[in-house]
Amino acid sequence: MKTLKLLCAFVFLGLLSQSCLEDKCDATREYVRYNPVYMSGQELAYDVRTVDGRSLENPGKIYFYQNYLFINEKGVGIHIYDNADPSSPKYVTFYNLPGNFDMAIKNKTLFADNPLFLMAINIEDIKNPVLTSRDRIKPEEDWLYENLDQRHVVYHTRSNIVETFDCSDQNFGQRFFRRDDMVWFAEGNGITFDRGGFNANNVLSFGESSSSGNSGVGGSFARFTIYDDYLYTVDQSSLNIWDIANEANPERITSKHLGWGIETIFPYQDKLFIGSNAGMFIFDNSDPSNPLQTAEFRHAQACDPVVVQDDIAYVTLRDGNQCNGFDNQLDVIDVSNIYRPSLIKSYDMKHPHGLAIRDNNLFICEGNFGLKVFDASDAEAITRNELAHLSDINAYDVISLNSELLFLVGSDGFFQYNVKDPKRPSLISSILVEN
């Protein structure tokens, strides 16, 4: 009988304990929800039009051409400002381009993207753009263009959500998950999205980096670049080469498959450096119509914008993004031998994004941790030579326009700094986000 009573007591306590656990088996968490925005092929086969008075809300990539500043509004279009006087940029107009994320310019022709088309737009009269051609981005996938009623995930909008999860919910305790075709992330993970967000299979992306001749200049998150009479674009798996000798009517030459996870492209001298979420590809571009791969430098799974100066490549890797990486670091790589790149040193970083290098001054965006400036003259002692840290700004990408002027874009807006003294960057002007 005593044994039975003791057993009953244990059962009672077990049930009580379970009941208590069940009462507390939930958690209220703050999440960022990314809601997909769909557009049909009909909506993406548009003519360009201008809109006056649109404010900056969700800035993306930046581009500079003949004193004009172009700021992408993610998935929506392009803001244009006259930046002849950097202390007072003047609003010009807004190009309404649904699905657009990136741009490049040559000889007053703007090349802009959406998930289905590469568009050539004459901007000789910048307030009155004229669409001169619209070419298929994926010509081999006829079904995309024969079924223009097909909807495509073009971008995501962000919502801040507070939700209570019961422990029986399969998403309980998860950092990210899917629900109702939307992607949710626990707040604070630094998640960023460009086109298509989590499901990159549904979309295509472009970008831009520095270029030569009568072209403009962009940031380190470039997904296409111009060299002489050629436009190079990367999508998630390929390098694509376009002949733009006739800017008004680009002609695709070929595509080179590189594998999944291709992200950025950066030209340096007669070479192309292509970043992927698993490594960096190097191409010999001495024949611009047919770049040839010479090497691949592998690294941990992470997003990696690349810039190069004096045969040294600087690559940032970061966690908490769609590349599923877990590293926050700067890799410095010797690329003097394009057939055998070698790691010089890796440096721990907080949360690095875009970067720029000029005159041994290395500018690194650290997201919510701001902008950092380093003396990179000694490749093996970079982080020991920190020159400046602007910690009160969100920094996504930068363009070093010259030895004095630095462009920066982040979630708060666009900023111009005088960096003649890299130890004391001074703010010249800003274009702030209006929510």
Helix content: under 10%
The radius of gyration is: 24 Å
Spans of at least 5 consecutive residues with low confidence: 1-22, 187-213
Kindly state the number of beta strands. Answer: 34
Let me know the average pLDDT: 83
Work out the helix count.
Answer: 3
* Biggest β-sheet description: 6 strands, antiparallel
* Beta-strand percentage range: over 45%
From the helix content, strand content and strand pairing, which structural class follows? Answer: mainly beta
The coarse silhouette is globular
> How far do the termini sit from each other?
72 Å
Protein topology:
Layout: H1 2-23, E1 26-40, H2 41-44, E2 49-51, E3 59-65, E4 68-73, E5 77-82, E6 90-96, E7 103-106, E8 109-113, E9 117-122, E10 130-136, H3 142-146, E11 151-166, E12 176-179, E13 182-186, E14 217-218, E15 224-227, E16 230-234, E17 238-243, E18 251-257, E19 262-268, E20 271-276, E21 279-284, E22 292-298, E23 306-309, E24 312-317, E25 329-334, E26 342-348, E27 355-358, E28 361-365, E29 371-375, E30 386-390, E31 397-400, E32 405-410, E33 413-418, E34 426-432
Antiparallel strand pairs: 1-11, 1-13, 2-6, 3-4, 3-14, 4-5, 5-6, 7-8, 8-9, 9-10, 12-13, 15-16, 16-17, 17-18, 19-20, 20-21, 21-22, 23-24, 24-25, 25-26, 27-28, 28-29, 29-30, 31-32, 32-33, 33-34
Architecture overview:
There is one protein chain. This protein is mainly β and 435 residues long. The protein has a domain at 26-206. It has helices at 2-23, 41-44, 142-146; strands spanning 26-40, 49-51, 59-65, 68-73, 77-82, 90-96, 103-106, 109-113, 117-122, 130-136, 151-166, 176-179, 182-186, 217-218, 224-227, 230-234, 238-243, 251-257, 262-268, 271-276, 279-284, 292-298, 306-309, 312-317, 329-334, 342-348, 355-358, 361-365, 371-375, 386-390, 397-400, 405-410, 413-418, 426-432. The strands form 8 sheets. The protein has a 6-stranded antiparallel beta sheet, with no helix packed on it. The model is unreliable at 1-22 and 187-213 (pLDDT under 50).
